Amino acid sequence: MEFTHEMIEADANIPVKYIIHTTPDAVSVPRHWHEAMEISYTMRGSIQNFYIDGKSFTTKAGDILIINSNAIHSILPLFEENRKALSIFFPYSFLQQHVPNIAELEFCCFLTEVEDGSLSRLQDLLSEFILEAESGVRGLSSLRLTAIMYDVLYLLVKYYSVEKKSATLVTTEKHLARLTEVITFMKGAYAEELAVSDLAAHFNLTPEYFSRFFKRYMGNTVLEYLELIRLGKAHQLLVNTDKTISYIAHSCGFPNDKSFTRVFKKVYKMTPNKYRMQGKNHNLTV
């Protein structure tokens, strides 16, 4: 999955979008945002390096994270064979329709038990959502998934919403538009030799201002984020082709094999060659 500002649309038969994550592979998702409110539920295993608006989390089985609308977030998980997780995206238009004061609310990020078994009820509902999505009766499944989704939203609003005290990190349409433009350009030019001064000049900004702006809103430096874009491209080639490490490094914009290996090990905790062999042993695809 590769996006910066992601447009979330509902699935055809239910008013939310959902993804059930079962691959053990450690596919990284660089920092991005979307208007939709997102629920991340770890049913089995764990998710490491889950970043949400300046805070990092590691989940275990049963943990629920909420990503508020326009919150910048990313995932850099490690390989884990037993992992199973669910992501549900509530489109903002749907939230506005059913929670009229949604613009004045924000949801707790890491959910804990508050009262009346609220957390365990949510865990049961989300586990049922996964079961129904995977093996439900054709024709009735969408009805049950919709009912579960409404129950989940009700519990979140009742027990886990608070009055919004501060805006999310990305606060204006101007900033959203500029970040989208910058990262779209970086994704198109990742294979080229890019310096901060080159990027700043392209957007008619001074390198100093450009660097501060990017770091403030994205949490990474410009070059760190560029490395993540290159790493995502390289990861796809590594697991889906037999291209040499040298070819992958140079075609994805890394100056040399050593630089590629350094960045890869920082995120995936092993060399590209070892990761490729591990993937082959588990028949991984992404």
Automatic annotation (TrEMBL):
It comes from the Bacteria. One of its GO terms (molecular function) is DNA-binding transcription factor activity. Residues 180-278 form the HTH araC/xylS-type domain. PROSITE patterns: HTH_ARAC_FAMILY_1, HTH_ARAC_FAMILY_2. Keywords: DNA-binding, Transcription, Transcription regulation. InterPro entries: AraC-bd, Homeodomain-like_sf, HTH-like, HTH_AraC, HTH_AraC-typ_CS, RmlC-like_jellyroll, Tscrpt_reg_AraC-type_HTH. It holds the Pfam family AraC_binding. PANTHER family: ARAC-FAMILY TRANSCRIPTIONAL REGULATOR, HTH-TYPE TRANSCRIPTIONAL REGULATOR EXSA. This is AraC family transcriptional regulator. It comes from Listeria newyorkensis.
